[in-house]
Task: inverse folding
């Protein structure tokens, strides 16, 4: 128990010594273990004989999946030989054996326990050497790689350690730098390239004119390329391996397009504005970002470059004018720039009255002074002045305790009769009055205009006109005098007007109006009077040139009634002249005229001499059966007297001319009874019928309502006429057959007749 108490007593030194002893033992074991590992991992070298090595490793062979790509070189003649290789894909251990042997002799040197893919070795500088690297030497799967070379061919110059590409207009500019040990031996270099994804390198590699720059031409701007570089071999650089393949992206060729420009005032910050610009680029261009370059239109430094990856930018600027350019870029090219001018704020002079004043001494010196409250806050200022539509001049200065500054010995002398604008900008940065950055670095305090020398206007207002003319007033309107013609600050306009009489010009009246007025009403004029009007502008130096004379006449009393009467008469006359043709034309379009029945084709044929022949034929009419193209009468029926037959003759005769066959005429009726009846000649019968035709028509039981004979009227006539014919046929049973030929089918006024099969009760029928 006492021993336990001693071990638990931390104040006893013996207990502390006993407790710490196991820790020392453990630490010693760890050190021994790491020492053993380091001895096994340390590369060892020893001499060997070629025949022994050959027999020991004769089972090792070359294999594409084994150790490979052995390459050896030296950086200078007095340095060791560096060997590099690629290990096998299926190596069980990352240790290799390297053997170097000269071309002559049976001796060699072996390096063991190599656990890296490179090694520096001592070589035979006067002999051609063979170097072998073995992997898995104790296994049946042992592989090897072989390198051979002479000492004079082993000095290598590495590929460049820095490369920069620049593309533009189908060209590629290359700028390289080399290792400091190689640069003194390299005289030039060459490149080869291919389209990205292609398998074949360009057969015509480019060559530099010096050791740093090279240009490749005739490239496709929209194609990305792979490119390699190596030095040109010489006696000091016997080995110049190709570099790794660099990827050169396609050229950025599309110009950005500004899609939005917005300008707003900054709250609680007098003389500053918030400017926002947004743009877009073509989707086919691969870009990494954008370059925004901004500078003052006056040319004052700095011209600031801002890089951004967003297609927009927001700046806080003064009221001065600025120039902005925007470009897209990738790591090899920059697109064409789009430029935009941020205009000068034209309303600067409205920022306050008398805050900035100018006193001109001569054409090379003037003085500006401002409100003294700025003295407490600012010591750095910049003044800009310019003539309209010319470049701005500027001067930045440091001033403490004063509120005025004199500009002298101007580079560009002030011109007489020209208006100048001067602006004063304040800068909060007190370290330097020259701006380091443009964004949020200054504000505009005030602006004003001045002349070195004033004059009178050289022209009057233009486009003088009048309206609202009454008996005793008129309103005049005109355009302002152009600023370049005022030659001073315009103080107003003078309207000169007089009554214009044949006997001469009366006394002139003058009225003065403010310079911002461009119309004025003249009152208390005389009715029916012509006035001559001229307008001129005036400055502090006097009245300028008048405008050309203009003449305006007031209205007379009762002129409105007289004018109304004239207008009414003019409207009435126009109605009388143009009214009837318009009404007639409207009637033709809206109510077409009805044809005159008296001029119909049927009525024109009524008077033709064919009634008698038709009557004779009907007297001997005999129907024939089954004739579909003609009319056969097969039944006799007493309907009415035969005296109405002549009334239908003109209708039947009219059918004769409606057909298309030229052989059918009024003589289309043939009968054998003409020879049998000799009592009455055909000519006499015809004459008789012609004489009695009008009487029969007047006594016709179905009088026509008009002179226009239609088909419906013909249907009313036919039954009685046929009855008359049948009565005559009963008295002469020996009558020959009667054939009535049908006109062309499809007639509008005369329908076709057809017969049904023969029967005892056959009736005459009509069909369309």
Result:
């Amino acid at each position: 128990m006492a021993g336990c108490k001693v071990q638990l007593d931390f104040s006893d030194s013996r207990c502390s010594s006993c407790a710490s002893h196991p820790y020392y033992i453990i630490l010693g074991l760890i050190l021994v273990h790491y020492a053993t590992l380091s001895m096994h991992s340390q590369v060892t070298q020893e001499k060997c004989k070629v025949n022994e090595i050959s027999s020991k490793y004769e089972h090792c062979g070359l294999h594409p999946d084994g150790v490979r790509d052995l390459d050896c070189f030296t950086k200078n003649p007095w340095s060791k030989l560096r060997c590099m290789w690629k290990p096998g894909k299926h190596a069980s251990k990352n240790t290799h054996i390297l053997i170097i042997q000269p071309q002559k002799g049976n001796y060699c040197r072996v390096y063991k326990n190599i656990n890296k893919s490179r090694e520096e070795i001592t070589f035979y500088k006067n002999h051609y050497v063979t170097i072998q690297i073995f992997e898995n030497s104790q296994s049946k799967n042992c592989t090897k790689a072989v390198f051979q070379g002479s000492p004079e061919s082993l000095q290598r110059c590495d590929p460049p350690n820095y490369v920069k590409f620049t593309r533009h207009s189908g060209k590629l500019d290359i700028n390289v730098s080399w290792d400091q040990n190689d640069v003194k031996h390299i005289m030039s270099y060459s490149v080869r390239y291919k389209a990205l994804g292609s398998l074949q390198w360009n057969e015509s590699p480019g060559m530099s004119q010096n050791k740093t720059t090279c240009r490749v031409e005739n490239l496709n701007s929209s194609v990305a390329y792979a490119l390699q570089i190596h030095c040109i071999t010489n006696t000091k650089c016997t080995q110049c391996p190709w570099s790794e393949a660099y990827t050169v992206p396609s050229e950025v060729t599309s110009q950005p397009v500004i899609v939005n420009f917005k300008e707003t005032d900054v709250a609680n910050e007098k003389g500053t504005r918030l400017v926002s610009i947004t743009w877009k680029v073509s989707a086919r261009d691969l870009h990494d970002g954008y370059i925004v370059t901004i500078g003052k239109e006056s040319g004052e430094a700095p011209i600031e470059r801002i890089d951004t990856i967003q297609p927009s930018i927001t700046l806080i600027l003064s009221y001065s004018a600025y120039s902005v350019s925007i470009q897209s870029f990738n790591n090899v090219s920059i697109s064409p720039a789009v430029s935009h001018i941020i205009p000068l704020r034209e309303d600067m002079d409205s920022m306050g009255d008398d805050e900035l004043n100018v006193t001109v001494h001569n054409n090379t010196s003037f003085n500006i002074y401002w409100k003294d409250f700025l003295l407490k806050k600012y010591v750095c200022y910049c003044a800009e002045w310019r003539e309209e539509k010319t470049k701005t001049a500027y001067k930045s200065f440091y001033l403490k305790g004063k509120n005025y500054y004199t500009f002298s010995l101007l580079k560009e002398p002030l011109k007489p009769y020209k208006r100048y604008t001067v602006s004063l900008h304040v800068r909060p940065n007190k370290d330097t009055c020259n701006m380091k950055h443009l964004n949020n670095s200054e504000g505009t305090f005030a602006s004003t205009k001045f002349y070195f020398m004033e004059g009178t206007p050289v022209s009057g207002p233009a486009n003088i006109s009048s309206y609202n003319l009454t008996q005793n007033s008129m309103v005049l309107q005109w355009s302002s005098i152009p600023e370049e013609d005022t030659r001073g600050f315009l103080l107003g306009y003078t309207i000169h007007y007089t009554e214009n009489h044949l006997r001469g010009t009366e006394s002139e009246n003058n009225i003065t109006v403010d310079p911002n007025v461009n119309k004025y009403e003249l009152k208390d004029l005389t009715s029916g009077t012509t006035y001559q009007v001229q307008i001129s502008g005036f400055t502090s130096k006097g009245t300028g040139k008048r405008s050309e004379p203009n003449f305006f006449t007031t209205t007379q009393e009762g002129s409105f009634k007289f004018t109304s009467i004239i207008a009414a008469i003019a409207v009435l006359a126009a109605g009388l002249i143009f009214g009837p043709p318009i009404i007639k034309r409207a009637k033709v379009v809206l109510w077409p005229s009805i044809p005159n029945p008296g001029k119909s084709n049927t009525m024109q044929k009524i008077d033709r001499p064919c009634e008698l022949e038709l009557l004779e034929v009907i007297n001997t009419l005999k129907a024939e059966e089954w004739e579909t193209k003609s009319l056969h009468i097969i039944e006799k029926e007493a309907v009415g007297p035969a005296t109405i037959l002549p009334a239908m003759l003109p209708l039947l005769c009219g059918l004769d001319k409606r057909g298309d066959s030229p052989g059918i005429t009024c003589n289309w009726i043939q009968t054998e009874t003409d020879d049998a009846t000799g009592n009455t000649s055909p000519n006499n019968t015809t004459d008789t019928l012609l004489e009695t035709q009008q009487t029969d028509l007047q006594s016709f039981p179905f009088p026509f309502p008009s002179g226009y004979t239609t088909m419906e009227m013909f249907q009313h006539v036919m039954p009685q006429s046929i009855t008359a014919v049948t009565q005559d046929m009963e008295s002469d049973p020996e009558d020959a057959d009667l054939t009535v030929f049908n006109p062309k089918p499809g007639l509008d006024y005369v329908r076709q007749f057809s017969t049904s099969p023969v029967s005892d009760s056959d009736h005459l029928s009509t069909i369309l």
Remarks:
- The CA atoms of residues 648 and 717 lie 7 Å apart.
